[in-house]
Amino acid sequence: MNEALWAGFEGLLLGVSHLTLGHLVMLVIGGLLLYLGIRHGFEPLLLVPIGFGALLVNIPLAGLMEKGGILRTFYDAGVLTEMFPLLIFVGIGAMTDFTPLLENPKILLLGAAGQFGIFSTLLLALALGFTRLESVSIGIIGACDGPTAIYVTSRFAPHLLGAVSVAAYSYMSLVPLIQPPIMKLLTTQREKNVVMAPVRKSVSGRTKILFPIVATVLTSIIAPLGTPLMGMIMLGNLLKESGVVPRLKQASEQEIANVVTLLLGLSIGATMQAERFLKIETLLIMVLGLAAITFDTVMGLLFGKLMYLATRGKINPLIGAAGISAFPMAARVAQAEGQRYNKKNYLLMHAMGANTGGQIGSVMAAAIMLSVLRRLGIG
Amino acid sequence: MNDLGFGLALLVVGMGGTLLSLWILSLLVLLLKRFFPYEEVKKADGRVTK
Known about the structure:
Mean pLDDT of chain B: 87
Oligomer: heterodimer
Number of domains of chain B: 1
Order of helices and strands of chain B: HEE
Radius of gyration of chain A: 22 Å
Structural class of chain A: mainly alpha
Distance between the termini of chain A: 61 Å
Largest interface: A-B, 44 and 32 residues
Distance between the termini of chain B: 56 Å
């Protein structure tokens, strides 16, 4: 009798007795992510489920990430198979209006320049001792594109998925804080004051419909391993622009995107187990993530300055900072900074063009990286 | 190939490839715009829509 009582009492304390300092730290980190998402609105759609997933997975003996556990089931079904990030891409495509980019296609080049952070951070990560595949996964934070980062990391370094995803989404939400000082530093007063001509309507409906098809075929031929990424984002855009499948468009941008965002967030949070997350590497990844977005912004601005010179002052270099995939924050930052220096300056539509160019650029950069790695025999 | 060579190769090919791909894509968009120019549509009631 006494033995049974004692065993029962021990059973009640089982969770407490298995609680480690690591678990406690992770519960605080999960709480911090929830706080940032709820209180400060930092990417709440992702940070809230990620934060809650981190809480759940750090409850001792709960077993949510063990074989058969619910979070493990989500993770295996959606992240390991790369299905979740790809479905999110369909939704992003359905939400994205490429018209500002199509009005002025040369702005696409800013979307390429804005990917410099991927490759420069990859070099830095290698120098810090990360393996090649880990470095690729860390560099991809510079895509400023959550689904792309998750897609690449789940393929090459799944043990870093939690750290890379949290860094990617955190810094994307911090773009309004990270970019303005760099924009101020790297542009002259004269450049900041450039008033760009209003965007002229010049894109037909047929062009908008053909663009996702042409973009998919062209980029997939150049970098076939990126076809799932580019194909899904362009499929979503075709659903939007074709105008004949409003139900599919709505499902892609709302129902599917919402459900998948929830499951993806929980799955990422579930990778944040204390023994995997509480490492010096996580801190390094956070620092490298900040470096990646800084490099992106610097190169975007420098390329913007080049276009300013090439067009004899018709392009405001500030829109170069919008050549990253953080949509639409980066475009809004360019607009706000332009207005700060010249009240007559309306850069939003131009910056939106660069920003959507950044979305295509980030996918293209990842696609090329996947193809190069395959050619080198390490992908 | 050492790690530095690997990183530099990815930097050059990756950035070069991305720039080249998007430049070609921008040319294709210009072609699309030339083949399918934007037109204002006149409705039966005389209103012009875009």
